[in-house]
Amino acid sequence: MKEEASNFDDHAFAPMVSMEMNIGMFKSQWQFCDRITEYLSDILGQGHSDPARYSNFLSVATNELIELAFRSTGEPGRISFDLYRSATFNRLRIAFPCEEASDRERAHAGSAERQPIPEAGSGYLAVKSDGKVLLRDLAAIFRAAIRIEKHGTQGIQIIADFPSTEDFR
Questions:
Q1: What are the backbone angles phi and psi of residue 134, rounded to the nearest 5°?
Q2: Any idea of the CA torsion for 104, 106, 110, 115, to the nearest 10 degrees?
Q3: Superkingdom of this entry's organism (predicted)?
Q4: Between β-strands 155-163 and 145-151, what pairing exists: parallel, antiparallel or unpaired?
Q5: pLDDT at residue 124 in the model
Q6: CB 132 within 8 A of CB 62
Q7: CA separation (Å) from 151 to 20, 67, 71, 142?
Q8: Low-confidence residues of the chain: pLDDT under 50
Q9: Which helix (H) or strand (E) holds 2?
Q10: Domain limits of the chain?
């Protein structure tokens, strides 16, 4: 499932909502994680036969990813939250500047070897807390493709593709 979702052409996804906020404001109150999660989860539930059930179920994963972003950035700038939908997947994308991304870029700047884009289970966030285990567990529980990619020169993005089917067991 991970490979199937992550190989989708981004153009197959229609934008649903995009939010952006200053990181200083975002990090000023932990409660923003819950409020943003509730908003995004409600939107994800739209169009399902049981929107409350689908929203509630995915709010757990959405909240964990937003909290991971909250803990992973201390850099000034903006954080964005984007939702997309395709025929079979819903995509959550969280993009933000990250000190580790810029440190890693500087550390490898002199190297002739090109570094691969990090994936879930490796890369920038895996160094902080238990991000590696969190992403792996969330991917397994929600049958989702979750990965971390470089975003620009000093940022990263967390991309999670959730199946739009309602058959969660």
A1: -55, -50
A2: 30
A3: Bacteria
A4: antiparallel
A5: 46
A6: no
A7: 15, 19, 18, 24
A8: 1-8, 101-129
A9: helix 2-6
A10: 2-163
Amino acid identity for residue 2 in this structure: K
Query: Which H or E element spans position 161?
Result: strand 155-163
Under 8 Å between Cβ of 80 and 18: yes
- 94 contacts 85 by C-beta, under 8 angstroms: no
DSSP 34: H
Check residue 122 and give its pLDDT.
35
Residue 46: Cβ-neighbour burial (10 angstroms; 0-12, 13-18, 19+): exposed
The pLDDT value given to residue 92: 95
Backbone angles phi, psi at 12, to 5 degrees: -75, -10
**60: alpha, beta or left, given left = phi > 0 and alpha = psi -120 to 50?**
alpha
Find the Cα–Cα–Cα–Cα dihedral 129, 133, 135, 136, rounded to 10°.
170
**Of 117, 67, 65, residue with least CA distance to 90:** 65
* Distance from the first to the final alpha carbon of the chain: 16
Q: What is the pTM of this model?
A: 0.76
Predicted pLDDT of residue 100: 58
Query: What one-character DSSP code corresponds to residue 106?
Result: H
